[in-house]
C-alpha cells in the first residue's frame, strides 16, 4: 500500500473509533483499546509534523542552492578579472604566480574553485604594490574576498539543508513503518472482533468478501 493510501486508511480508522464507542468497545475486548487508537492518532500527527518540516527544509535548500549559484556567478566575474590582470603583471614569474594559484587552470568544481579563489585573495594583498599598477586596489581585493566567503557560506547552508531533508525523510519513513505495523494489528483484530458481523468492517474502509 502506498504511503498516501496508508495514511488515509489509518486516518479513517482513527476517526471512526473516536466517534463510535460501540466499535471501540468491541475492539477493546480483543486488545485494541482506546490507548491503541490514540497511538495511531499520535503516529498520524508525527507524520504531519515531519511532512511540514520536510517541505520547509526543501524550500530552504532550494533557496540556498539559488543563492549559491548567484553568489558564485557574481564572485567569479570579479575573481577572473583579478586573475587575468595578475597574470598580466607577473608574466612568466612562477614564483609570484604560484602563491596566488594563477599558474594552473581554473578548477571547475565548486570545492576546487573555492580553494583557488580563497588562496588568491588571502595572498594577493602582499603583492598590492604590483597589482595596483593594473588598477587593482586593496578595496577590490577585500570585496573579492568577501564575495568568495559568501559563496562558502552559501555552500554550507546548502549542505545543511540537504542533511536536514535526508534526516527528516528517514524519520518520516520510520513513522510510516510504525503506521504500517499499527494498521496490520488493527486489521487482524478487527476481522476477529467482527467475524460475526463483517459488514462492520466497511466503516473502516476494509473490503468484505
Provide structural commentary.
With 209 residues, the protein is an all-alpha fold. It has one domain. Helix content is 77%, strand content 0%. It contains seven helices and no strands. The protein has helices spanning 3-19, 21-28, 34-90, 94-97, 110-123, 128-131, 138-193. The longest helix is centred in the N-terminal third of the chain and has 57 residues, at 34-90. It is rod-shaped.
Outline of the structure:
The protein has 209 residues and is mainly alpha-helical.
What share of residues are in beta strands?
under 5%
Mean pLDDT: 95
Low-confidence residue ranges: none
- Helix count equals 7
Q: Structural class of the secondary elements?
A: mainly alpha
Total domain units: 1
Helix content: over 70%
Q: Can you write the helix and strand succession as a string?
A: HHHHHHH
Amino acid at each position: 500500500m502506498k504511503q498516501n493510501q496508508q495514511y488515509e486508511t489509518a486516518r479513517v480508522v482513527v476517526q471512526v473509533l473516536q466517534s463510535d464507542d460501540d466499535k471501540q468497545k468491541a475492539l477493546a475486548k480483543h486488545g485494541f483499546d482506546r490507548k491503541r487508537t490514540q497511538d495511531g492518532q499520535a503516529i498520524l500527527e508525527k507524520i504531519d509534523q515531519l511532512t511540514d518540516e520536510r517541505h520547509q527544509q526543501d524550500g530552504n535548500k532550494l533557496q540556498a542552492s539559488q543563492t549559491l549559484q548567484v553568489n558564485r556567478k557574481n564572485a567569479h566575474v570579479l575573481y577572473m578579472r583579478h586573475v587575468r590582470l595578475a597574470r598580466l603583471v607577473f608574466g612568466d614569474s612562477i614564483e609570484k604566480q604560484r602563491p596566488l594559484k594563477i599558474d594552473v587552470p581554473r578548477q571547475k568544481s565548486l570545492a576546487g574553485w573555492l580553494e583557488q579563489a580563497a588562496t588568491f585573495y588571502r595572498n594577493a594583498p602582499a603583492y598590492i604594490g604590483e597589482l595596483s599598477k593594473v588598477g587593482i586596489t586593496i578595496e577590490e581585493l577585500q570585496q573579492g574576498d568577501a564575495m568568495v566567503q559568501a559563496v562558502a557560506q552559501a555552500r554550507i547552508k546548502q549542505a545543511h539543508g540537504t542533511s536536514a531533508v535526508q534526516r527528516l525523510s528517514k524519520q518520516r519513513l520510520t513513522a510510516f513503518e510504525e503506521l504500517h505495523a499499527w494498521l496490520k494489528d488493527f486489521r487482524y483484530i478487527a476481522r476477529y472482533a467482527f467475524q460475526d458481523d463483517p459488514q462492520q468492517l466497511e466503516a473502516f474502509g476494509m473490503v468484505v468478501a
